[in-house]
Amino acid sequence: MARILVIEDEPEMQRGLRDNLEFEGFEVVVIGDGKKGLQMIIDKKFDLILLDVMLPGMSGFDICKKARGEGISTPIIMLTAKGEEVDKVLGLEFGADDYITKPFSLRELLARVKAVLRRSPHGAKISTGKVSLGLLEIDFDNYTATKKNKSVSMSSKEFDILRYLWQHQKDVISRDDLLTRVWGYDESISSRTVDNFIVKLRKQIETDPSKPKHILTIHSVGYKLIP
Fold first, then answer.
1. Global confidence as pTM
2. Consecutive sets of 10 residues in the chain, 227 residues long: mean pLDDT of each?
3. Four-way CATH pick for 3-119: 3.90.550.10, 3.40.50.2300, 2.60.40.10, 3.40.50.300
């Protein structure tokens, strides 16, 4: 049974999320305060976090950023009433794995929860094992990475992008394909989201990110990974 932490301060939304997720067979813990939510993420083990952006005590953006800074790679889906692209990109850059805008349908939420869990270390996935890519040593099975024998903090989404590129190395992968295959469904987030993740990954992998040798840009098409 997957264990889900819901960090949301609206009582009605709390009840709705808890009731529906428990009906689907998930174990659910609900917290209504940002700082307490962050401490819960640090102290306890969860399979997925549903994180509201507007919270008392600490914003969802800050919680996500601090959690990733602590090396916590638990998948995070951000919940917010904000729908502007800049807010979506900001959440993803802080390490969120997905982003859903209120109001949302229960069917959409459950589809996204299940898609993220399938890609998490607790869900079904293709084992890629340990690989070396540029400056990184990557263990896809355990979602860990090191660089020069030091641990590197990466979100599960970054691991999933690298995994997909590794599994299709030397093929040209379009931005739309990455969005569909890695995120698991079509969505309104622009292809610029992929570009932002690639920039972050190059900083970890490449000796000179401005002259990449491993994740190459194929103009007007997408990306190609060269081991």
1. 0.57
2. 91 92 90 95 92 92 91 89 66 84 85 80 50 92 89 89 86 83 62 89 95 94 92
3. 3.40.50.2300
